[in-house]
Amino acid sequence: MIADGVEDEEKWLAAGIAGLQQNAFYMHRALDSNNLRDALKYSAQMLSELRTSKLSPHKYYELYMRAFDELRKLELFFKEETRRGCSIIDLYELVQHAGNILPRLYLLCTVGSVYIKSKEAPAKDVLKDLVEMCRGIQHPVRGLFLRSYLSQVSRDKLPDIGSEYEGDADTVMDAVEFVLQNFTEMNKLWVRMQHQGPAREKEKREKGRSELRDLVGKNLHVLSQIEGVDLDMYKDTVLPRVLEQVVNCKDELAQFYLMDCIIQVFPDEYHLQTLEVLLGACPQLQPSVDIKTVLSRLMERLSNYAASSAEVLPEFLQVEAFSKLNNVIGKVIEAQVDMPIFGAVTLYSSLLTFTLHVHPDRLDYADQVLGACVKKLSSKGKLEDSRATKQIVALLSAPLEKYNDVVTALKLSNYHHVMEYLDNETNKIMATVIIQSIMKNNTRISTADKVEALFELITGLIKDLDGNHEEVDEDDFKEEQNSVARLIQMLHNDDPVEMYKIICTVRRQFMTGGPKRLPFTIPPLVFSSLKLVRRLQGQDEGQDENPFGDESLTTPKKIFQLLNQTIEVLSTVPAPELALQLYLQCAEAANDSDLEPVAYEFFTQAYILYEEEVSDSKAQVTALHLIIGTLRRMHVFGIENRDTLTHKATGYSAKLLKKPDQCRAVYSCAHLFWVDDQDNMKDGERVLICLKRALRIANAAQQMSNATRGSTGSVTLFVEILSKYLYFFEKGNPQVTAAAIQSLIELINTEMQSDSSTPDPAADAFFASTLRYIQFQKQKGGAIGERYEAIKM
């Protein structure tokens, strides 16, 4: 049925165009022969095609545009006729004899345009006559297009200030009156369209009406272009008349479109000065009108106006713009009880944006808007509407974008209350936005109270929210926790007392996050604490007394106690390798603070973790090298404690699973007995014992390889041990002699030439490079050169 209707409409349109073109042809022929009567006759017949009621608005528009083009040619002919001496008044009378009213009025408007240009009568009189005569067409579609034609031909002939058609003192009022009258009649016709035809076609009619809305809206555009319409005239005449028509038409489509038109076409300054009148119409609109969009666009325009120049801001204060907008939004939300939560939140979001642009210094205004939003949300619980959720994110993001400072947002007491109504997923997104804002703007959070408030906002990332049992993507989770970890570096205060409070606050929050988050959040907290310890060391060097004052108990030792308890929690995760690394970091910091018992305790904890929790062979190798490297840098230990720890480390080295790992760990332990800048830590004999043990292990590894694979394998381990021999030889260890080095070089050469040896280019290159180094040291001369001369190659 629909397809048949479309086909019929196409046929009717084709027939209408054919009839129009045929009569236009005869009209042109009459025009060419200057036959006025035939020209009028055929033009009237041509325009009769516009009398059809069978076309939809869209198809009717096609037909109208063809007629419009022909009327422009007819208008030029009428101008020529008046130049040739034909009376324009007689012509104006003559066209009124056309048989049908619609062609008659089109011709009348066309001649009227020429009549005004001739200036034989005041423009206002001709316009008044035409606008009144057009009342003769009451069919909605035909009437709309006729009045649109009148508006089109008259728009450049209005008696405006500065116009060639300007008349007496009240001339602008006549122009305004003409446009307003035409607008009023067009709006009535447009609204009446919805009642033309059966109810089942209402949706189709509404679509057609929507397509014709610009015909009505153009009148408001014409009004805005009239030079003589100043603020007073707009306030006293134009706006009240337009709003009267908008409110009285009681049509949802018309009210929404026309309110939007008013906002878009008239100047921002006018809106600001007539804000009360414009807003007063909003609660009177139909409940189904999308008032949120209307008000949002108004506030957006006013916000942009405020942002355009600081000079206009006093005007906003003068008219109390915020108060008026806030009141009307409250009334609209109260009046429209069925307004979805999305609509209410959109209004508050727009109002907040407006407030931040116009009154950036009035945080109480911004907090008032958030408070009103919380009040509206309080009856709804957690938001489930994704559009409303998106608007809440926009609402909460606005202060961050405006101030570029989370600290300012933290002063808004209702900010975190709004976040409570977000679903868990969106809460996390908003928390990430807040962290990104802090990082982007390099914002320092400098007090424990502000940190507490901040963590209340990002609680969705710190711990699992109530009722959140959803599966979380592992990559997303890691990214979220890494962003929290980065945040820790932005929490800083130069006052050590306050910094310690910040650390305690952060620790308390992190401990509620559950074991899964701790491996991400504990390390940055530990390093932040160690940074504070090192600052205290720097202050202690410059002064003898406690920098916190006599009454304070906060010292590096106190911080280390806190760190010990904090790292201990990681063992419940479990994350033994991470905990071990952090213990070693703390031990090194305690070493710099000359706190031997504390450093020893951290090493003890690291050793316990190594023995009881680190079972993977690769993890053991990594952990052991970390232990050896850290222990080598320690200078705070007495002989007894150091011997205990080094003995343990060498014992662990010999117990590693793989022989190559054992060998490397053992020769690394040699460094524990020879530290350059500490004379009391130079034990050449024990260095040699470690190196010899490493050689034995390397030899055992080759024998094992020979037994299992039939080849001795690579000589890499021997070359590595040779490098260690050379290191300690250079450092002046008397136990490491040139003869021992020479013996090792011969051993490596023998192994490489052995039939059971496996070719290894990398090991060969390593050995060759080592030999070149020895040769280089010989050539260098001096004390080192003399020592190297004893090595015969």
UniProtKB/TrEMBL annotation:
It is found in: Membrane. PANTHER family: VACUOLAR PROTEIN SORTING-ASSOCIATED PROTEIN 35 (PTHR11099:SF0), VACUOLAR SORTING PROTEIN 35 (PTHR11099). The keyword Protein transport applies. Belongs to the VPS35 family. Plays a role in vesicular protein sorting. It is a peripheral membrane protein. This is Vacuolar protein sorting-associated protein 35. Keywords: Membrane, Protein transport, Transport. It comes from Hevea brasiliensis (Para rubber tree). Its main location: membrane. Gene3D superfamilies: Vacuolar protein sorting-associated protein 35, helical subcomplex Vps35-C.
